[in-house]
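Exercise 7b. Backbone tokens:
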């Protein structure tokens, strides 16, 4: 099975999005300086560090799904399977995830515990970025379209392929980068 050039350019675009999302979150955390543990209760019950810890916890579980999907995609390529179409969301429809209006109550296991350091969170985010990029490297020719994963948070029958799941992870990071920046802006204007 030969995948088309559009799928290859899609893998490259997902890579760019992942690198940008992780770099922007790291930059926002770095800019927090000594205020990384402070809260602006009018903006969020979480500190910038809490937000980043939540992102790492969420990434942990989403990357497990992405790794499983990547392995299945690679096997489907070998077998010559076609990309599934049923329930597909598409990257354009995912953009709402980064929106402040998107609501998804984080499950208990993805809530920050407040027991991490800034250095540990930044190191975890860097590792998770490398992990994400390695999945894209594993599927460079568009193979990530061959397997879909159910994401009920986006709708009862919503399915994302591996690339879309990685974009979902990037969008989640983008959303919380904006939250960190709102918290910091509120903290800086109250000083």
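Sequence design result:
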């Amino acid at each position: 099975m030969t995948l088309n050039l559009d799928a290859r350019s899609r893998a490259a675009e997902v890579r760019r999005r992942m690198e940008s999302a992780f770099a922007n979150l790291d930059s926002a955390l770095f800019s927090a300086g000594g205020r990384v543990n402070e809260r602006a209760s009018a903006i969020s019950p979480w500190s910038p560090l809490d937000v980043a810890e939540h992102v790492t916890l969420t990434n942990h579980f989403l990357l497990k799904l992405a790794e499983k999907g990547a392995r299945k995609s690679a096997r489907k390529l070998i077998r010559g399977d076609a990309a599934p179409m049923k329930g597909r969301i598409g990257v354009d429809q995912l953009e709402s995830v980064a929106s402040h209006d998107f609501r998804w109550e984080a499950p208990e296991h993805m809530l920050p515990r407040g027991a991490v350091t800034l250095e540990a969170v930044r190191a975890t985010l860097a590792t998770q970025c490398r992990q994400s990029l390695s999945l894209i490297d594993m599927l460079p020719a568009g193979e990530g379209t061959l397997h879909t994963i159910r994401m009920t948070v986006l709708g009862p029958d919503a399915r994302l392929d591996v690339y879309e799941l990685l974009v979902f992870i990037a969008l989640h990071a983008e959303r919380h980068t904006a939250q960190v920046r709102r918290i910091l802006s509120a903290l800086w204007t109250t000083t």
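Instructor comment: Confidence is low (pLDDT under 50) at residues 1-5. The helical segments are 5-32, 48-79, 91-94, 118-138, 162-189.
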